[in-house]
Specification:
The complex is a heterodimer of chains A (186) and B (293).
Chain A lengths: L2 H14 L3 H21 L5 H19 L7 H24 L19 H12 L2 H10 L7 H10 L4 H23 L4
Helix pairs in contact in A: 1-2, 1-3, 2-3, 3-4, 5-8
Chain B lengths: L14 H13 L5 H13 L1 H20 L4 H11 L3 H20 L3 H4 L9 H4 L4 H26 L4 H10 L12 E5 L12 E5 L5 E7 L7 E8 L4 E9 L1 E3 L2 E9 L7 E8 L10 E9 L2
Parallel strand pairs in B: 1-3, 2-9
Antiparallel strand pairs in B: 3-7, 4-5, 4-8, 6-7, 8-9
Helix pairs in contact in B: 1-3, 2-3, 3-5
Classes of the chains: A mainly alpha (186), B alpha+beta (293).
């Protein structure tokens, strides 16, 4: 890393927030949002596209910080749109004929031998017992059932939406653990 | 039956429902470029909104896995979620979670052997899982109550053991140092073999002995603790113990009422619980309790 890069990165963090701790959190939020947006748009390598977007913003930081008004996150988005979405369109055109059909729901009886299942088993074992029980109860039905989940929320002394958020956070940790164990998807 | 092409009238929908529908359309690739950009700008500037999109995505995955997506949504879902390896990974994890949960659900699992559920037609013939769950829970309760009643009759209550359970249950208070507490630091839990005995000196003021055992797994596992006298007789067994996070370190803390200890030698065994429910070979600690007036 060059001195110039380090200076620009320091300037970027100050631009995001004068408090270094808040700036670090905001940087991570923006990076995560960019990855998700690229993923939702079907990117093959969302993390690389997000890194390239950030790198382009970094190069411009010395010029823009003085005059830019508004939320800096929107500047990142504008750069992602100009550069990343174009890359995506080219990628999608290239792979259009190469789509792998998703396995139909409920037909794949081999799943329990698949690596995702094995990793999930290991990742669930790392969760606190209460979280593990909650997520298994939440997903134990073949079909999402509103009344069952309302009852589950009542048992856990939570509003239904708070239960939804809690389960999401546990599930996000699980997905991240599975991804780490399996490495990048091929 | 296929869903209507147009979303339900906005006038009859709550704001939150409208938001979810919009997010769903975004995830299924059904928004025009302008609406997509507006939604993405909210994602990047508002972490709560991003979380809502992530939750809606999980719900969509869940509907796909459970086969409850409409034909039209299924078509869009297939187009969007087969387009990248990351999306395909999300689908596979959702499928794995769905299968795992139906095979290992906390209550149903205790009643129904894996793979035999569907054959118990008389007992679990209803298609509504909530009813199945209630029935299973009721049976578990009846069996549990019978076992408890038998246990209570055959084991007279021991007030020291009750205090021990209270001191070590999940979320119990970590006692702070004072003249009634004797804290003892022991080697980390990877330690094997009894090693040199650690002497614990208790006085008349001592009410609790607090054993600190650093947990190198970072709190990932639960433990069983067994304390035995050197003659082999058991003082207590504690199940499902978890390390506490103390100053960014995971530490298993055992809080033992001093009345359970008399001046003699003890062996403390800590067993790590494996994911399949069996136990690893124990970390063993030699303790020597001494008393001073």
């Amino acid at each position: 890393m060059t001195e110039n890069w380090e200076d620009n990165f320091a300037a970027l963090l100050t631009w995001l927030d004068p408090d270094p701790e808040k700036a670090g959190r905001k940087y991570e939020e923006i990076r995560h949002s960019l990855i998700k947006i690229f993923e939702w748009r079907g990117a093959y390598d969302a993390e690389e596209l997000a890194a390239e977007t950030i790198s382009r913003v970094l190069n411009k930081v010395p010029k823009i910080v003085k005059n830019y008004e508004g939320d800096p996150a929107l500047y990142f988005y504008a750069v992602a749109k100009r550069f990343g979405f174009e890359v995506l369109r080219r990628q999608q055109a290239r792979v259009e004929g190469d789509l792998e059909k998703l396995a139909a729901p409920g037909t794949d009886e081999r799943n329990d031998r698949e690596p995702e299942y094995e990793c999930l088993d290991q990742c669930l074992a790392q969760l606190p017992a209460a979280d593990r029980e909650l997520i298994l109860s939440y997903y134990q039905q073949d079909q999402p059932n509103i009344s069952f989940r309302k009852e589950l929320a009542r048992i856990h002394h939570l509003e239904p939406n708070a239960l939804r958020v809690k389960v999401h956070r546990i599930r996000a940790a699980l997905q991240s653990c599975v991804n780490k164990r399996l490495g990048k998807p091929k | 039956m296929e869903e209507a092409i147009f979303p339900p009238s906005a006038a009859f929908m709550k704001e939150s429902e409208r938001e979810r529908l919009l997010i769903r359309q975004y995830l299924l690739g059904e928004l025009d470029e302008n609406d997509q950009e507006q939604l993405e700008q909210r994602v990047i500037t508002n972490p709560d909104y991003k979380e809502e999109v992530l939750i809606t995505e999980e719900e969509l995955l869940e509907e796909f896995v459970s086969g409850t997506l409409s034909m039209r949504d299924l078509e869009s879902f297939n187009r969007m979620y087969s387009s990248s390896p990351t999306h395909r990974r999300k689908v596979k994890v959702a499928q794995a979670l769905n299968r795992y949960a139906s095979e290992h659900s906390p209550v149903v699992q205790t009643m129904v052997q894996k793979g035999r559920r569907r054959s118990l037609i008389g007992l679990f013939s209803t298609k509504r899982r909530f009813h199945q769950l209630s029935l299973a829970a009721l049976i578990v309760l009846v069996i549990g109550a019978s076992i408890l009643a038998y246990w209570l009759i055959s084991h007279p209550r021991n007030p020291d053991y009750d205090a021990l359970l209270k001191l070590n249950q999940f979320g119990s208070e970590l006692l702070q140092p004072d003249s009634s507490l004797v804290p003892v630091a022991l080697p980390a839990l990877v330690f094997r073999g009894a090693g040199e005995p650690k002497t614990i000196t208790i006085t008349k003021q001592t009410k609790t002995v607090q054993l600190w055992l650093p947990d190198p797994s970072g709190g990932a596992y639960s433990f069983r603790a067994v304390l035995k006298r050197n003659d082999g007789s058991e003082v207590f067994t504690l199940e499902d113990l978890r390390a506490r996070q103390i100053d960014q370190h995971a530490v298993l803390v055992l809080q033992i009422p001093a009345e359970m200890l008399t001046p003699q030698g003890y062996q403390l065994e800590i067993f790590e619980k494996r994911p399949d429910g069996t136990f690893d070979s124990p970390s063993t600690y030699s303790l020597n309790v001494a008393a001073t007036p």
